[in-house]
C-alpha cells in the first residue's frame, strides 16, 4: 500500500513537472516570436522540448511548433487570424494605399506646375516681345502671350485687328500717336505724290482721325492697287489746308510714330521735332532683327508680330496701327535709348 502511494506520488510529480516545462518552453517560444517581430537579433533559443535539464530524453509528447516569423508578423500587423487571408488582404490594401499615394503625388505635381505657369491675365502686349518672354520665362508663357495677342498662323482680318488694337482702351488722344498717309500720283507719268488720305491712331491703336483729302492737282495715277484710293473717295474729300491744320494741332507736343515718316510729313508740308519722331523703319534694333537696312512695314509685322498686313490694297488706319504696335512692343527700350542719346549730347 505504501509502495502504491509512493508510485502515485511520483507519477503526479512527473506530470506536474512536465506541465511546468511545457509552460516554460511555450513562454520561451513566444518570446522568440516577439523578438523576431521586433527585429531583435539576439533571440533567446528555446530548449528542445524532448530533453530535460540534465539532457535525458523524456517520453512527453512533442510540443506544438512555434508559429513562423512571417505568420506572426502578419498577425501582428493585420490583427487577423493565421489563415493566410490576412497577408493577402494586406497586400491588396497596400496596393490601394500605394495607388492613392500616386494620385496624391501626381495631383501635387500638377498643382506645382500650374503655380509655375504664368496666368494669362498677367501678360499683355505693352512693351513685351513674346520672344523676350520665351527667353525669360519659357515657351508656355510665350504661347500665352501670343494667344492673347492673336499671334497665330493663318489669321483672319479680325484676329489681325486684335493684335494691333487693344479692345478695351481709351479712344481719345494719348502722348504718342501714329500716322500714315495714302497718296496718289500727279504729273505727266504720275511719279509725283500728293496726299489723298490721312489717318491717325492713339497709343492703343484706336483711330482718332481719318479723312480723305481733296486733290490740289490733277490726279494722273490713283494707284488704287496699292493706295486703295478711288476717284469718288477724294472728289468729296476735305480741303487740304483744313486737314493740314487739324493734323498739325494733333501732333503738337506729342510723340509721332510711323513708318518712313519723312514721306508722310513731306506730302502734308509739315515738320516735327526729330526728338519726338519714332520711325519704325529707322529703329536700329528692328533692322538688326530682320537683317534689312530699310525694312518694309509688311516685313516687320511678319517677323516681329507674326501678322500679315498690306496683303492687298493698303489701309492707312491699319498701317498706322501696325506702326504703333511695333512701337509699343519696344517702347521702354526705345524711350530709354532716346533718353540716353539726349543725355550724352548734353554732356558734350
Automatic annotation (TrEMBL):
Keywords: Exonuclease, Hydrolase, Nuclease, Nucleus. Pfam families: RNase_T (PF00929). The keyword Translocase does not apply. One of its GO terms (biological process) is rRNA processing. Gene3D superfamilies: Ribonuclease H-like superfamily/Ribonuclease H (3.30.420.10). Residues 175-336 form the Exonuclease domain. Residues 75-85 have a biased composition (Low complexity). It is found in: Nucleus. Residues 39-117 are annotated as: Disordered. One of its GO terms (cellular component) is nucleolus. InterPro entries: REX4_DEDDh_dom, REXO1/3/4-like, Ribonucl_H, RNaseH-like_sf, RNaseH_sf. The keyword Nuclease applies. One of its GO terms (molecular function) is 3'-5' exonuclease activity. Coiled coil: none annotated. CDD domains: REX4_like. PANTHER family: RNA EXONUCLEASE 4 (PTHR12801:SF158), RNA EXONUCLEASE REXO1 / RECO3 FAMILY MEMBER-RELATED (PTHR12801). Belongs to the REXO4 family. This is RNA exonuclease 4. It comes from Sula dactylatra. The gene is Rexo4.
Amino acid at each position: 500500500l505504501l509502495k502504491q502511494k509512493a508510485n502515485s506520488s511520483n507519477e503526479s510529480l512527473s506530470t506536474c513537472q512536465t506541465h511546468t516545462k511545457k509552460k516554460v518552453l511555450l513562454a520561451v517560444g513566444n518570446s522568440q516570436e516577439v523578438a523576431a517581430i521586433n527585429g531583435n537579433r539576439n533571440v533567446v533559443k528555446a530548449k528542445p522540448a524532448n530533453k530535460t535539464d540534465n539532457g535525458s530524453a523524456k517520453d512527453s509528447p512533442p510540443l506544438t511548433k512555434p508559429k513562423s516569423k512571417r505568420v506572426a508578423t502578419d498577425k501582428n500587423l493585420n490583427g487577423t487570424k493565421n489563415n493566410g487571408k490576412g497577408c493577402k488582404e494586406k497586400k491588396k490594401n497596400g496596393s490601394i494605399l500605394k495607388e492613392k499615394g500616386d494620385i496624391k503625388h501626381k495631383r501635387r505635381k500638377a498643382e506645382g506646375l500650374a503655380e509655375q505657369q504664368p496666368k494669362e491675365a498677367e501678360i499683355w502686349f505693352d512693351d513685351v516681345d513674346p520672344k523676350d518672354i520665351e527667353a525669360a520665362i519659357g515657351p508656355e508663357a510665350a504661347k500665352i502671350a501670343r494667344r492673347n495677342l492673336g499671334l497665330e498662323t493663318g489669321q483672319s482680318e479680325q484676329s489681325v485687328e486684335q493684335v494691333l488694337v487693344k479692345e478695351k482702351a481709351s479712344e481719345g488722344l494719348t502722348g504718342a500717336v501714329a500716322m500714315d498717309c495714302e497718296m496718289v500720283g500727279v504729273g505727266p507719268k504720275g511719279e509725283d505724290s500728293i496726299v489723298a488720305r490721312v489717318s491717325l491712331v492713339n497709343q492703343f491703336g484706336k483711330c482718332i482721325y481719318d479723312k480723305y483729302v481733296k486733290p490740289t492737282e490733277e490726279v494722273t495715277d490713283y494707284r488704287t492697287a496699292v493706295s486703295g484710293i478711288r476717284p469718288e473717295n477724294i472728289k468729296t474729300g476735305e480741303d487740304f489746308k483744313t486737314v493740314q491744320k487739324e493734323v498739325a494741332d494733333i501732333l503738337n507736343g506729342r510723340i509721332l510714330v510711323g513708318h518712313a515718316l519723312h514721306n508722310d510729313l513731306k506730302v502734308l508740308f509739315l515738320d516735327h521735332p526729330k526728338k519726338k519722331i519714332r520711325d519704325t523703319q529707322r529703329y536700329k534694333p528692328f533692322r538688326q532683327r530682320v537683317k534689312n537696312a530699310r525694312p518694309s512695314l509688311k516685313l516687320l509685322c511678319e517677323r516681329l508680330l507674326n501678322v500679315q498686313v498690306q496683303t492687298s490694297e493698303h489701309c492707312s488706319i491699319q498701317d498706322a496701327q501696325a506702326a504703333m504696335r511695333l512701337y509699343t512692343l519696344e517702347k521702354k527700350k526705345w524711350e530709354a535709348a532716346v533718353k540716353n542719346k539726349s543725355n550724352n549730347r548734353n554732356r558734350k
